[in-house]
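Q: What structure does this chain adopt?
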Amino acid sequence: MKPNLLLITVDQMRYDCLSLLGHSVVETPNLDRLAQSGVLFRNAYSATPTCIPARAAIMTGMSQRSHGRVGYQDKVAWKYEHTIAGELAKAGYHTQCVGKMHVYPARNLCGFHNVVLHDGYLHHNRSRSNNTVNEHFDQADDYLQWLRQNAGVSLDITDNGLDCNASTVGRPWHLPEALHPTNWCVSQSIDFLRRRDPGKPFFLWTSFVRPHSPLDPPQAYFDMYKDREMPDPPIGDWVDEAAAAKGGYDPATIFGRVPKRRFDRARAAYYALITHLDDQIGRLLNALFEYGVSGNTMVVFTSDHGELMGDHHYFRKSLPYEGSAKIPFILYDPTGGFGFKAGSEVNEVIELRDIMPTLLDAAGAEIPASVEGQSLLPLCSGREVPWRSYVHGEHLVGHLSNHFATNGKEKYIWYSQTGEEQLFQLTEDPEELRNLAADPAYNEQLASWRNKVISELEGREEGYVQDGRLVVGRQGKPCLSHILA
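A:
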């Protein structure tokens, strides 16, 4: 019997926000239980850590060089021949996505039989002068339609006054908890279990928008954290403190020193959103039991990228530091058919592109030649298999445009517009406090990692490499030419 497949993704959750890992503030009992019953991956990364390119890796199983999204750009059509949902549908699965897709056009099914959509606030489809009727949020977003039908008054997702990129401000949700988009996402997922085709295995992608800002947890969850003592964030010895002192007042800042009271409230709201998600994920897992499918449903839990949340005075994502690029990742198989070692951990470095081949492998489906990820199933059973030695990541983000390479033990970073290099020994310095790039004792490691990035960028259209050397100042673009045609 083919297993059912449940992919649970959250948006912008840090890798370390699991109480199982000893986090000093946040509580995640349901995710802890999932990890203790399954396999926890300690070195999972998002190679292009913002929403759109990360989802391209999940949906296609390809690296950023192949799926073509190396930065954030809206309104670029999704025209991939092979997608995770499309291939599973071919293999006989009933496929459904609930929540965030962040594709274009917004109602593009990307191989799913059906999508119940909530992308959150997207600037490009909120502009009334810049959209056709079918692309505008009023028509595209299923949650907003549902909210207006069930709240009894005319509402919008912006009514609490928080911006969708405001990582430095938080406040409680202004409506009853049952109307929160996190609850809605689980309710719609449970409804799929009711109306699915019982003659087919299912692939359900429950895709949450939170804990991505706005940081608006229900009041009960905010109350859990609002008076907690918050630890100081890590600040590396390489950080420009003078520059940080000039920033931090914009609620959607990327870099700056934020006033402590506002910062503590934002962190309280962020952690509260994660605990709220954890409870709702527990509700969804219980529904699997109630519908009689829990014993035959493989579960993958991860995030599309992290949230810097003040690390080195940075906020949001797109940067190569652990808070942004490293993600939580749990794989649970209750069937026992794949030989998982319950409660075990995997240290090999993995990436979001590995999700598609993993689920296709579990389904016994053919893996298209375009897929560049690897199935994680052998690692979960403790088998020694050939595995990548590092992950290359990147993101176009103005003067902070960057490339990085890591094996989970060391990390090399190159800022393409300034030429700045950073080298971190993550085993000894997991918070990336000491930049070793200028230390002569690490010249050999620095050169080795630099050469890995050169090999990844060789032949790229941006011209990052010439005569075997990295070229500083080359202007990139968020999408490579082959997906713009």
